[in-house]
Design brief:
Layout: H1 4-38, H2 42-70, H3 72-91, H4 96-124, H5 127-158, H6 163-166, H7 168-182, E1 185-187, H8 197-220, H9 224-246, H10 260-289, H11 295-300, H12 303-323, H13 326-342, H14 356-380, H15 387-412, H16 428-449, E2 462-465, E3 471-474, H17 476-482
Antiparallel strand pairs: 1-2, 2-3
């Protein structure tokens, strides 16, 4: 952590994954402007978000597997270039349908960026510094997520909503040469030359069918086609599990879920990130359409979350390394739930300082407590060779949680609508309270399941290719002694 190369690695990983996290949230502030530009309704806006999350969640795990197999830096660079091309297509989209298609391409490229960035950190840093490095990564990546609506609002008010996508291009142009120069190459030396394409396709079909039914069903009165798609989606997800159990080289090695810690941490991820995605989606739109905020003011409402995560996430990672992850992972989601519930008070007639600000402060504190220990806990359950798959699984769980929450929650809270136009006033508070219950469940799950920190696998050997080109083969203990 104290070396220049260590700081360069973290910076490159944060910038690379940051554009993917940023585009998961920056578009929220642009939704009303996109709706006005294209005459889009709530279902169209759901697809602008869920199209991205669908591709990201479906292919994250196979993206991590590709990095373990062919090299994490190589896949990271391919993801950067692909994300830049897709961002350009989003920025020039002539219709909402074109925009949704480009967002799906963005998600597919992001599926390489997110797991590789975290796997690069996990495989590059000495064992004693790994939790702090992950804490710095998660804090800065969380800032990118929380900063997104503010940046989007400023760009929308200043120029156009299209700049929320085009802003990725200069960031990627800086990150590519940085990664080439400073990021070491690493891979799983035991990985077989096999990619589970069948598993990825079945997972994408299952999620896509289910999400399409969940978004279009409430608006269209649940036609026969939508019911059939929902059934097919559930069946495909069951088929995915069956295939992974019987495939010699599965996309998701289900045996990693034998670890109570790994399974518990991913369950916490699912409910907490589902709640967070609902807040990020609905709050910024609610502030603009129902309370009269402009895009900049609506995006700026979440600045306290950004500041708190930037300051306290690394400290939370270090705390979890000293006392174990169970306490922060139990308290963090409960604090997130309290902040989410406070957002129910955001309504016409209330000032920002009365309602939104206290909620944002509490939400930021909860996320700072949760994110870094959660990420470190997931990676502590596997050895270095499985870092790519483990981080990919956890990130896939987070994106799929957001995907399903955005698809389901509006209808559950009475916000589903047909045609163009947005009105979230009725049902917004109900949606926040449902999200708060989801987040609180994460604290309960962590208390019950998070017990230990030792890896479930025995230490394995991994190839680390230094930027100078000299490969070294080290065990985990050898890396620690060398550090």
């Amino acid at each position: 952590m104290g070396t220049p190369q260590g700081r360069w690695v973290i910076l490159a990983a944060v910038l690379g994954s940051g554009v993917a996290f940023l585009d998961g949230s920056v578009v929220n502030a642009a939704l009303p402007a996109i709706a006005a530009d294209f005459g889009a309704g709530l279902a169209d806006l759901q697809w602008v978000l869920t199209g991205y999350l669908l591709a990201l969640g479906s292919f994250l795990v196979i993206g991590g597997s590709l990095g373990d197999l062919f090299g994490r830096r190589k896949m990271f660079l391919i993801g950067l270039v692909g994300f830049g091309v897709a961002s350009l297509l989003c920025g020039i989209a002539p219709s909402v349908e074109f925009l949704i298609g480009a967002r799906i391409l963005q998600g597919a490229a992001g599926a390489l960026l997110v797991p590789e960035s975290l796997a690069i950190i996990s495989s590059s840093f000495a064992l004693d510094d790994r939790a702090r490095a992950i804490g710095a990564w998660s804090g800065l990546a969380g800032v990118a997520t929380a900063f997104g609506p503010f940046l989007g609002g400023w760009l929308i008010d200043s120029v156009s909503w299209r700049l929320v996508f085009l802003i990725n291009l200069p960031i990627i142009a800086i990150t590519v040469p940085m990664a080439l120069r400073h990021v070491p190459e690493s891979r799983d030396v035991h990985a077989t030359r096999h990619v589970d394409v069948r598993g990825a396709v079945v997972l994408a079909f299952g999620l896509g069918s289910l999400v399409f039914a969940l978004i279009e069903g409430p608006a269209g009165g649940w036609s026969v086609g939508e019911v059939v798609l929902a059934i097919l989606g559930v069946g495909a997800l069951g088929l995915f599990v069956w295939l992974e159990l019987r495939t010699e080289h599965p996309m998701v090695p289900l045996r990693i879920f034998r670890s109570q810690q790994f399974s518990g941490a991913n369950a916490v991820t699912f409910v907490v990130y589902g709640a967070l995605s609902s807040v990020m989606f609905l709050l910024v739109v609610h502030l603009q359409t129902d309370l009269g905020y402009d895009a900049l003011a609506a995006g700026a409402s979440l600045i306290p979350v950004t500041v708190i995560m930037l300051v306290f996430s690394p400290r939370a990672g270090a705390l979890a390394q000293r006392i174990g992850p169970r306490l922060p992972m139990t308290l963090g989601p409960l604090v997130v739930a309290a902040g989410t519930a406070l957002f129910a008070r955001v309504e016409p007639g209330k000032t920002y300082w009365e309602a939104a600000f206290p909620a944002a402060v509490v939400l930021g504190a909860g996320l700072a407590l949760t994110v870094a220990p959660l990420t470190a806990t997931v990676l502590a359950a596997v050895d270095d060779d499985h870092a790519g798959v483990a981080s990919a699984v956890n990130n896939a769980v987070a994106r799929i949680a957001g995907l399903l929450a955005i698809a389901v929650l509006p209808a559950a809270a009475g916000l589903a609508s047909t045609g163009a136009g947005l009105d979230l006033d009725e049902g917004f508070a109900r949606a926040m309270l449902i999200s708060a219950v989801l987040a609180a469940a994460g604290g309960v799950i962590a208390f019950v399941t998070i017990r230990r920190t030792e890896p479930v696998f025995t230490p394995a050997r991994t190839v680390v290719q230094q930027p100078c080109g000299d490969p070294c083969l080290r065990s985990r203990d050898e890396q620690r002694r060398a550090a």
